[in-house]
Design a protein that fits this description.
Blueprint lengths: L1 H24 L26 H17 L4 H24 L14 H13 L5 H24 L8
Organism: Marinobacter salinisoli
Protein name: CDP-archaeol synthase
Pfam family, one: CarS-like
Length: 160
């Protein structure tokens, strides 16, 4: 049970550290991952909010936390990177569907960024498939419930 809580915290870190880094560093190191490129549909591949700074901040925060709790730096780095890869896949999918980066897409906004790193945790021997499903459900519900509060507190730029 303790390790599932640690994995949940790492998911929050992977998604929260890029937001904190953006507030701390403003425009510094804010190069978009897609380099401003357009896909064949004429839309941005990912969007300007998906930056290298955010990718590094999210993966590194997970790695440091994972190391601190005894799960290992490499595991944490991979876990965080996979969480952010899931977020990039969501962003890419939303652009293809014609949705703005701030548009709400329940499930698509939460599941890939949670499921990909949790699959790693299963294969690393840290979680079961049942624990993974529970964490995905908890992360999705927490994201939906707490995003409006974080928006009201000025932490998020959008209420979802």
């Amino acid at each position: 049970m303790k390790v599932l809580l640690e994995l949940f915290v790492m998911l929050v870190l992977a998604n929260g550290a890029p937001v904190v880094a953006a507030r701390l560093f403003r425009r510094k190191w804010a190069a978009p991952i897609d380099g401003g490129r357009l896909w064949s549909d004429g839309r941005r591949m990912l969007g300007k909010s998906k930056t290298w700074r955010g990718l590094v901040a999210g993966a590194l925060s997970c790695a440091l936390f994972s190391w601190a709790v005894g799960l290992g730096f490499v595991f944490g780095l991979l876990f965080g990177a996979l969480g952010l890869l899931g977020d990039l896949l969501s962003s890419f999918s939303k652009r293809r569907m014609g949705l703005d980066s701030s548009a709400r897409a329940v499930g698509l906004d939460q599941v890939p960024e949670c499921l990909l790193p949790m699959v790693l945790a299963v294969f690393w021997g840290l979680a079961s498939w049942g624990g993974t499903l529970a964490i995905v459900a908890l992360f999705t519900a927490a994201n939906i419930l707490f995003s409006p509060l974080l928006y009201q507190l000025g932490i998020r730029r959008h209420p979802h």
